[in-house]
Amino acid sequence: PQLFKNNGWTALSLGKIFSGDERELDPPSWSAPEVLRGEGPGWKNYALAGAKASGKGAAHEAADVPDEGYPDGGLARLAVEALEQLAPKKEPFFLAVGFFKPHLPFCAPKKYWDLYDPAVFEPRGGETRVEGAPEIAYHTHRELGGYKGIPEDEQVSAEQARALCHGYHACVSYVDAQVGKVMDALHRLGLDGNTIVVLWGDHGWSLGEKNRWCKGTNFDRDARAPMMIRAPGVTKPGTSTEALIEYVDVYPTLAELAGLTPIGSLDGRSLVPILKDPAARGCDVALSQFTRQWKPGGFEFMGYSIRSHTHRYTRWVEWPSRTTTAEELYDYGSPASATREGALFIEQRNVAADPAYAGELGRMRSKLDEIFATRIRPQPSDDAAIPEPRPKKSKNR
Question: What is the pLDDT of residues 53-89, one digit of tens each?
Fold first, then answer.
């Protein structure tokens, strides 16, 4: 957003754009103060009387309230109002709207819960951990375990599991409706013909599969996340791609689509060639990483994971000695190592120690080493990070 703002765009931020923590807001990037949450009714996690106003209360809630009875409904309203104010102006705009759901707690208006029959959410019992995966592959940050009535070790009952899955799906439908309101406003205001839209989620999610809840692992279910891009005159409705990409690619992609020049040291690369031709090749591998142990003030290990079209390789490194303590390799073409579930691969067996995979293990090791060599470098100073404004403005919004 700072690149766009410095080039004459109005840059506005609504909702959870970074972490949702007020201490981590980023005033230099925006044309007006960021709005994390609004004031008044409907801006708390919980809507029912007597529910905890903030922090962790119940893990789910289904209040019989309108959409604006919870924060995401209010955010959709603010986004539509912002578009109505921006539409008559000649200046281009960068509008970031960060909806909170389907993050915990799973709180959504009752009408979205009513879209689903609770009986369809059959708990997935009896699933064991990934064979041969090191203990460090599993997170110890009990995100779910801090909620009222949920065991600290997250070993929930079948009834609790069913309610949590139901709540997650209700929240997905709730936020889907809010996105629809924003898209409807773009169309109503005549902005859809020259407005780029990117819809993305910041991580995947586990609902009890393989004895895991929430996020925080380098397995495909947690590391793979959704992204859709609509660029008028570039993308075609209904098309998709199997190309591997990373979220660091969003910055150079938006810059190119808008006719702006970003700094030259970005890790990502523009996705415009893929948007024009979905059969175009993306990254050789996509990188993700998670720390261990999760705790405020520092960590002891870093888990780096790269995913190719056919394999996933993960390396666990002790910090700060940089000593490798464990490795994982999964073959997405072998049902013994990983099975397919929709768009996801579900890891079943770590084959890093299997002599038959020595060649592939070596190739993936080298690929991760190559990433380290090219991506670890001194960063520019704050003053030099973002190019100075350019006089020419793009008509894209």
Answer: 667 899 999 999 999 999 999 999 999 999 999 999 9
Secondary structure E strands in 144-268: 197-200, 206-207, 213-214, 227-230
pTM score: 0.90
d(CA 372, CA 88): 47
Show the tokens assigned to 347: 């890891």
First to last CA, the chain: 12
Q: Of the given ranges (197-201, 253-257, 320-324), which has the lowest mean pLDDT?
A: 320-324
Number of Cβ within 10 Å of residue 201's Cβ equals 15
- Tell me the C-alpha distance between 336 and 350, whole Å: 9
Amino acid at 176: D
Alpha carbon distance 242, 299 (integer Å): 34
HSE-CB at 38 with a 13 A cutoff on CA atoms is 19
Cα–Cα distance between 137 and 208 in angstroms, integer? 16
Reduced to 3 states (helix: H, G, I; strand: E, B; else coil), residue 175 is: helix
* Contacts for 110 with CB less than 8 Å, ≥ 6 apart: 62, 63, 64, 65
